[in-house]
Design goal:
single chain, mainly alpha, Tetracycline Repressor, domain 2, 77% helix, elongated
Length: 214
């Protein structure tokens, strides 16, 4: 926990520097000093430099989002509305760091860094689904996240150029595309249900899901 706090402190002190210096080792080192540490702490906290601090930046946003979502009673909301709330919260958290996010996306656009960018997106949508109460463990786990990942990525690109109040235009953009995700999830669930019923009939097994996983 202490290590996370140190990393958080350095990250938050680094973010203002990113506006001028970009995501560089120099910006991270200055962030460590401004956070009250020796310059060497930048390397100790983030031994892989920029890629490390960017991964922690993404993790920080995920943790903040999860904490804020947990404070909301979503029991009466459908999954679409839950995902909308999670995205609203996420954009609100990232709003003060918009230029840092922009530079992060530019970093991940470089081919050699793209795999790390994919991991960041996957972890973001995974956290969003978990926050919204998803407990799927079958093939829906992957299809839900893959579907939302495409929408999430497009939404973040749109958001970078959105100047509307409270990013409402971005939320509208997200909601329109989220409809397709929800429809796809429902369709896959219906298909899986039919397959499960079929296996139950031909095997006499009461739980085809567990049988199919063997």
């Amino acid at each position: 926990m202490q290590d996370i706090k140190v990393k958080d402190d350095i990250l938050l002190a680094t973010l203002p520097n990113v506006l001028f210096d970009g995501w560089t080792d120099k910006a991270i080192e200055e962030g460590a000093v401004e956070a009250g540490f020796e310059p060497s702490m930048a390397v100790r906290a983030f031994p892989y430099g920029v890629s490390d601090v960017l991964a922690h930046f993404a993790d920080y946003i995920n943790r903040q989002m999860s904490d804020r979502v947990s404070e909301i009673d979503m029991s009466a909301l459908g999954i679409g509305k839950r995902l909308e709330e999670a995205m609203r919260i996420r954009l609100d958290i990232e709003a003060p760091y918009k230029e840092a996010v922009r530079k992060s996306m530019s970093y991940y656009a470089v081919p050699k860094n793209a795999p790390h960018g994919v991991q960041v997106v996957w972890k973001a949508v995974d956290e969003m689904w978990w926050c919204c109460g998803d407990e799927s463990v079958d093939f829906n786990y992957y299809t839900k996240r893959a579907s939302l990942a495409a929408v999430y990525s497009a939404t973040m690109v749109y958001w970078l150029n959105d100047e509307s109040e409270n990013s409402e235009d971005t939320i509208d953009f997200y909601k329109r595309r989220l409809i397709d995700v929800i429809k796809a999830v429902k369709t896959r669930k219906e298909i899986f249900g039919k397959v499960e019923d079929f296996f139950c009939k031909i095997t006499g097994h009461s739980n085809a899901s567990s049988l199919m996983k063997r």
